[in-house]
Structures
1.
Amino acid sequence: MKKTLEFRGGWQVAFIPVVVFLFFCVLYFIIYKAFEMYALAMGAFVGLMVGALFVKKGNYEQFWDCVYEGVKEAVPIAVLLYVIGMFGELIKSTNISSGFVWLADSLGVRGGLFTAVTFFAVCVISTATGSSIGTMFTCFPIFYPAGVLLGANPAVLAGALVCAAIFGDNLAPISDTTIISAGTQEYTKKQGVADIGGCVASRFKYSLVAGVISFFLYWMFGGGGSVGAGGTDILAQKMNPSALVMLVPVIIMLVIAVKTHNIYIAITAGIALGTITGLAFHLLTFGQIISVADGAPAGFLTGGIKNMMATVTLVLSVYGIMGVLNGALALEKITDAILASKLGQTVTGAEIAMMLGISIMTLLFGGVTSASMTTFGKVQNELGKRFGLHPYRRANLLDGFANAIVLVVPFLSVFVFIGGLLTQGYEDIAAPLSLAQISSGMFYCIALFFVLLFSVITGWGREYEGPDGKPLRKPIG
């Protein structure tokens, strides 16, 4: 049995790396408004170095051994993130959003209907790319100015764009949060963690219900703006109906992921078919696959790896912190405290504790959901296992509540900050929106919260782990 990692001042001191990391989250994402994952990874590593100074004599080597043990657990997630990064970059390179722009223009949608259609289109794009922040930076310049000129309510349209980007974070099998939420939830009846395909298949109902509710809310409240000259022209400059053909490899990738429960097979098929399709329809050139530009590697294959490096580094650093907390038995003590509370007496109470835990953690991390899920995921894993909850259920509640109402809080959500930033520069058609205005239009995040809360209270979708990890509607015994 391994010796417990001991700190001067008690096991609570093990959270010093977390506190230092939170400081850098607030500093970079909220004060400096610098949305770079590698800066947060730096904060985590600095936190580890500071935390190591507080261990008891003779524990220093063990501290870093615990860090290594934590990082080892993150290796499968890191490998998967690199692989899915290439597929996400492929879809972005083919500019699939231009196909949806053509579709919206062809249907002649205006006002509230344009806001609703934009929400749907960007949901598809974010699910295809698996990148919420990347989707926002890509889609805002296309849909936002055109929508304002076509009579959409600016605040509701901006909220729809932000929420649609978050939709993909919650549902996409190639999203970092989907991978992390599944990767933190272990089976008890067999080896391994929750498979991504099974998680996506089981959480689809929550996203679908919240998405449908949101679509109609955006249709009802997304209009009312004044129609101006130039909206159709903006759309015309960014249209390409051929780009919609890229939905085929996306759909096939999703189907394979759900059917086989093997994301590697799905991504391999998606990249192969997507590359062939892109070349056949002249959406890609060979230079966009792999090339060299100005002496530097270029193309979606190297671009996908490059764009994931910061996220992978962040995941490795946070898992290192988790290794320290595990070594000090801190996460076990938190789990025991929850189980000893009133919430820990029933499965519904335990799921409410999960909701509160991941929500508070996400608020503390400024909406950086990958970090908050990595941090609280271990607690959720142990808590859920005590009640026999299936890893799918645990992963879905972890990911769902992290991407729900907590991301609407104006001054504690990186998504609201980015949304506000992306409404700047269009002063000739609309004044930049405040953080409160962005939040007011984030219907999907609010709807997802209440859908999941309904699920917790009523038990809808709750599954338990049966023999060989099979999901069951009722617990054994």
2.
Amino acid sequence: MKEILRLEHIQKYYGNQGNITKAINDISFSISEGEFAGIMGASGSGKTTLLNCISTIDTVSAGHIYLDGGDVTEIKEKELARFRRENLGFIFQDFNLLDTLTISENIALALTIHHVPAHEIEGKVAEMAGTLNITDILDKYPYQVSGGQKQRCACARAMINKPKLLLADEPTGALDSHSSQMLLSTMQSINKQLGATILMVTHDAFSASYANRILFLRDGMIFTEILKGGDSRKAFFEKILDVLTMLGGGQSDVR
């Protein structure tokens, strides 16, 4: 499998001399193309900071991050927005949809910014909406659809540019259990059917059980990692709970 993301000895400090907090302390790992990986850890373990560094929202204090062979940590400030648009997709906990645009227009936004011709946009939006089963709500506005439909719209928007890496930060945090299950199934299907490479930060064992590999953080370092392999989702869920118990907490209901 082709390596799409590689982190080499990442460190992130906050504060100044005499009062330094190490949010990330020498983390190294890689993600293969087409992988669905999760990052778990207690609050303050460094998982969100790590995601922010990978997404270039934050900068590392030391180390290097490579996406498809290019050094992300060397990108100049004025080129970061373009880099994110062309290479990364984002799924946020609170959807980040624009209420003044229809579902179709929200999905098309990234293509519009890239000046893709209108007739091409229409076809791409229709194809992605069909994949995520939201064709029937394309003409509605975000306030007219359910939380689960909003999140699938957010998935479609994140995937429309065929990003090299899809980053999801607590994607089920604002959803009820039914909508969470639908979203996670959707993410699993875009991983399998579209070959999307997904890196998801979550505190929830149920959400994590949809991934194929989980990295556990503690105190800014990798505590351990587990692979799903041939396990059923339920068996993987139990393994995740076992590690969380070792880490000192984290429970979730089997759904």
